[in-house]
Amino acid sequence: MQALILAGGQGSRLKPITDYIPKPLIPINNVPIIEWQIRYLKKFKIENVVICSGYKSEQIQNYLEHKRNFGIKIQHSVEDVPLGTGGALKKAAKIIKDKTFLVLNGDVITTIDITKLYKTPNAIALVELRTRFGTVDFDGMRINNFREKKHVQNVWMNAGIYHLEKNILKDLPRKGAIEDTVFLNYAKKGILSGVSFKDVLWFSIDSHKDLEECSHALAFKSIKK
What we know:
This is Nucleotidyl transferase. Residues 3-215 form the Nucleotidyl transferase domain. The chain is an alpha/beta fold. The protein has a single domain, classed as Spore Coat Polysaccharide Biosynthesis Protein SpsA, Chain A, CATH 3.90.550. Helix content is 24%, strand content 32%. It has five helices and 13 strands. It has helices spanning 33-43, 57-66, 84-91, 182-189, 208-224; strands at residues 2-7, 27-28, 31-32, 48-53, 73-78, 100-105, 108-110, 123-130, 135-139, 142-147, 151-165, 193-197, 202-204. The protein has a seven-stranded mixed β-sheet, sandwiched between helices. A two-stranded antiparallel sheet has the order 2-3. The relative contact order is 0.18. The model has no long low-confidence stretch (mean pLDDT 90).
């Protein structure tokens, strides 16, 4: 199975860090996001990874070229101007060799078992929505308890991991987001599937707070092992 990592964004919410390095090279517990992702994919027997990059792409390429111990084939598809997730995949079409392939958003850190997606083409991994704030148990005017952030049961969100058929490439826009174009059209036609995952570690690194929380979660997971 071939996997594409969408790593072309500018990471504007993570400034000023991203003024100097691209988002995929931001370290979490001393390991860059892109390396966490490659290690994750390799764990599930992925042997061919395509990095779809744009902003400061040369830094990403230089880092990966100097880290030659991944043991998998790494290729690059570089966009000269921002193309969005759909456009980035379409640009990488000539590198995609298999009938189906995986896509991973470049800011996702997770323990999702992606092999559960393999049997379902044109499928999106789903995770339960997690509130960004603590909640309060409230009865009339009396507060009974405070609760930490938690998952909202049976309210699902896009986890940023996809298993797609190669023929989807012809439907992708040359510029624009796959989520706002093809996925909407396929959903209306009833040809888009979702595979749900409960009780998994999942972070989308969009802010400095996400970095901190993901760092703590990964450290705790390592300690438990």
